[in-house]
Design brief:
Elements: E1 11-12, E2 28-29, E3 32-41, E4 45-52, E5 57-61, H1 62-66, H2 75-85, H3 98-111, H4 130-133, H5 136-143, E6 152-155, E7 168-171, H6 173-177, E8 185-188, E9 191-194, H7 195-202, H8 206-214, H9 219-224, H10 227-241
Antiparallel strand pairs: 1-3, 2-3, 3-4, 4-5, 6-7, 8-9
Bound molecules: zinc ion.
Length: 242
Amino acid sequence: MSIEADPRIVTPAHLCKRIPKGCEPGIRYGRLIVVAFIGMAPRSRAYASFQCDCGGTHTCLLASVRCGKTTSCGCFNRESTTRRQFKHGYAIHGKRPSEYVTWQHMIKRCGNPNTKQYADYGGRGITVCERWKTSFENFLADMGVKPSPTHSIDRFPNNDGNYEPGNCRWATRAEQCLNRRNNRLISHNNETLPLTVWSDRMGIKREVIADRLNRGWSVFDALTTPLNTAAKLRQLSKLNDG
Ligand SMILES: [Zn+2]
């Protein structure tokens, strides 16, 4: 909008006899510095354009900056809002960084039973380490920024492990699929294949193999022990434990 077309101005600057006091270029009000007197609004109120310290510009009534109602181009309020939203202080231009959203969701799905995903995370005993739970800065320092917007957090190498340094990485969806619980990669006989493939090949249910591995069986035993024998062994071990 050109200055002349601004409906707030009834008398443009070039038709005014003098620059009103306080509208001289270079005068500072908060973050704003007067660039030019623009003209008069109704009831003899002066309008001016300002340069803000942040690099932005602003046009408003001189009275508004003189009384301190306006102290910036709007960046000050945006920053305050940001500070309220991010008590941990990390934000770029008031936008939620995607790492922050990741951090928030990670804590929620591990700690809040009301979230949809809780069953797959907190409900499975997966936790967020204290260092990360208490500080977004720590989380960011350990993880770094996402390589791209399509990357998300992945528990790796141990998909059953917790969210903690050393067991997390930024990964693409494709990379994560390979690390899914049901797609766990298992090396046996010089082949590394997803658990589901081994399951089909050996004729043993995926859940059974996973359960065996989780209980500390060797890969060889987990993949090659027929079910019946396994059931017997389980009973035996129970007897022994008892
Ligand atoms: Zn500004």
